[in-house]
Amino acid sequence: MEPIINLENITFRYQDNETSAALKEISLTVNKGEWVAIIGHNGSGKSTLAKTINGLLLPETGQISVGQLDLNEENVWAIRKMVGMVFQNPDNQFVGATVEDDVAFGMENQGIPREEMVPRVKEALEQVKLTDFAAKEPARLSGGQKQRVAIAGVVALRPDIIILDEATSMLDPEGRQEVISILKEIKEKYQLTVLSITHDIDEAANANRILVLREGELVDEGTPAQIFSEGPSLVEKGLDLPFPERLKQALKDRGVTVPDKYLSEEGMVDWLWTSFLNK
């Protein structure tokens, strides 16, 4: 696998908190084409970590490289072109009067010619299934639609990496699923690397690999199956179990024999169907 993000012994401390570091000697590697979820309770350092990767925050110690470039003053703008970020509240990202204006805004800032911009806007809106909303005001869209506009604006810039910083946390379950489904399609089409900063365990279940942060330290990593099969010890780290694992535990408490292995929602439906409903 080809590394695309590498952090070595990253420590970061906010100026108003000299006693405790927000990140403590974090080392990790993200490979090209991976979907990596970073989970942890509030204050664990997830968003701080995301902002160090594209130079929005500069670490106190350690080294960061993105796409084979060391993160420094000379390379920071080249790295920011490689990394697109989608934040928690899409309303804070809107600057255009219409959806298509907003998607074009980032490209205008990069000086991309209009003849190239127009087809990119069209393609990005097609990708997030908002072609019919091109002339609408972003403020009049639903929460899920707004977040899809924000994603289109990032996709139009053709980054190598998309960082989702709690990007689905303000959405209802339907909107969250809608955005995750779109992101999966975009990742596969453009062979993107996705870094998902989230407290939503069900969102993290879509990742290839999960990193667990606690109080600024990397305390665990593995596949969703490895992390979520920890059960009660995951709860001790301040995290919830995903719905299929909670359902398994509830059935087990009622005397039902359940599989030991981790089951995704689809796997849980299949198991329930074959074990009970299909008899």
How big is the Rg?
20 Å
Class from helix and strand fractions: alpha/beta
Mean pLDDT, all residues: 87
Number of domains: 2
Listing every helix as H and every strand as E from the N terminus to the C terminus, the arrangement reads: EEEHEEHEHHHEHEHEEHHHH
Strand proportion: 15-25%
> And the CATH topology of the largest domain?
Rossmann fold
Strand elements, count: 10
How many helical elements? 11
Q: Bin the helical content.
A: 25-40%
Instruction: Detail the poorly predicted runs.
Output: none
- What is the CATH class name of the largest domain? Alpha Beta
Termini distance?
A: 44 Å
What profile does the largest beta sheet have?
6 strands, mixed
Shape: globular
CATH superfamily of the largest domain: P-loop containing nucleotide triphosphate hydrolases
CATH architect. name of the largest domain = 3-Layer(aba) Sandwich
The strand order across the widest sheet is: 6-7-8-3-9-10
How would you sum up this structure, described in words?
By secondary structure, the chain is α/β, with parallel strands linked by helices. The protein folds into 2 domains: 183 residues, 3-Layer(aba) Sandwich (Rossmann fold), CATH 3.40.50.300; 38 residues, no CATH class. The strands form 2 sheets. It has a 6-stranded mixed β-sheet, sandwiched between helices. Strands 2-1-4-5 form a 4-stranded antiparallel β-sheet, with helices on one face. The protein is globular. The N and C termini lie far apart (44 Å). The model has no long low-confidence stretch (mean pLDDT 87).
Task: Please describe the topology of this protein.
Blueprint: E1 3-12, E2 23-31, E3 35-39, H1 46-53, E4 61-66, E5 69-70, H2 76-82, E6 83-86, H3 99-109, H4 114-127, H5 143-155, E7 161-165, H6 173-190, E8 193-198, H7 201-204, E9 209-214, E10 217-222, H8 224-228, H9 232-236, H10 243-253, H11 265-277
Parallel strand pairs: 3-8, 3-9, 6-7, 7-8
Antiparallel strand pairs: 1-2, 1-4, 4-5, 9-10
